[in-house]
Amino acid sequence: AKSSGRGAICFYHPSLDEAARDRRALELDLRAAMERGEITLMYQPVLRVDTGAMASAEALARWTHPTRGPIRPDLFIAIAEESGLIVPLGRMLLRQACVDAASWPDHLAVAVNLSPVQFHAGDVYDTVIAALADSGLPPHRLKLEVTENVVMHDVERTFVELERLRAAGIKILMDDFGTGYSSLSYFERFPFDKVKIDQSFVRGLDTSRAAGAIIKAIVGLGEALGMAIVAEGVETCAQRDALVLAGCTHLQGYLFSRPVSSATIAALGAAGPGA
Ligand code: C2E
Ligand code: CA
Ligand code: CA
Ligand code: CA
C-alpha cells in the first residue's frame, strides 16, 4: 500500500480505519505544503535569569492547512517522522533557521529541534555544516535540541555524531528532560551543554511537591556537570519565582513571549537589555 501516484489516493483500503486514512491524507497534504514552502518557523525567546536579556530563540515549525487551519506541530512532526518526510523537512527548517538567525544581532543564538529520525538517516552532521556555510551563521550561534529518545536506538553512533557536532562548536541541548526513557547515564557518556526541564514539571509546581523536588535535582545535576538549565512553559510569575529560586539559568514561556516572527526577534534583540 506504499504505492505513490495519483491513483493510489482514491484506492479503497478496507483495513485502514478512519484515523489512519486521516493521517495518510495529512501526509499527502504535508508533502505538497513542503513543496510549496508553506511550513514556516516562529521563534520563542529564551531569557537569561542573571541579566533578564534574551540569549536565544527556539525555532518552532508552523503549518496552516488550506482547509483545516493550523495543524499542531506535535501532529505533523509525528506524521513527518513516520513517513520519512522529516529528513527533507528538517533540512529545510534547519537551513531557514540559520538564514533567519544570521539576520539577528550577533549575541542571539537560534535553537533548532532535531528528530531522532534525522539522526538515523545519518546525514545530520553534513546537513548542519552545510546550513551554517550557506547562511554564514557562526557555529556558536546554533544550538541543537535533541530529546532523550534520540539516544535510545544506536546509542554509540548517536553519541559519535553529537560529539562531531560539538567539536564543530555547536551547542547540544537535551530537551524535555525527565519525560522520555531517561537515563542519567547519558550524562556520563555525553557532555550536554544545556538541559531543558520539561514543561510538565513547571506546570506541576503549582500542585505537586514532587515537581519542585525534581526540578531542584535536575538543577543540582546541571551545576555539578557545568550544564545550563532551561525551564520551558513558564506561564505565571509564581512559576518564574520558584524556578529562579531553584537555580534555573534560563527561562522560556508565554509569561515572557509567545513564539514570534524572525523579524520580531531581530527587533527585540536590538532593543532589549544586553544588546
Ligand atoms: P518542544 O520542543 O518541547 O517545544 C516547546 C513547545 O512548548 C512549543 O509547542 C511551544 O510553543 C510550547 N510552549 C512554549 N511556551 C509555553 C507556555 O508557556 N505554555 C504552554 N502551554 N506551551 C508553551 P509547539 O510549537 O506546539 O511544538 C510542539 C512540539 O513539536 C515541540 O515541542 C517539538 O517537539 C515539535 N516541534 C516543533 N517544531 C519542530 C521542528 O522544527 N522540528 C522538530 N523535529 N520538532 C518540532
Ligand atoms: Ca524543543
Ligand atoms: Ca521541550
Ligand atoms: Ca515537548
From TrEMBL:
Coiled-coil ranges (or none): none
Domain EAL: 23-273
Domain of life, per lineage: Bacteria
Protein name: EAL domain-containing protein
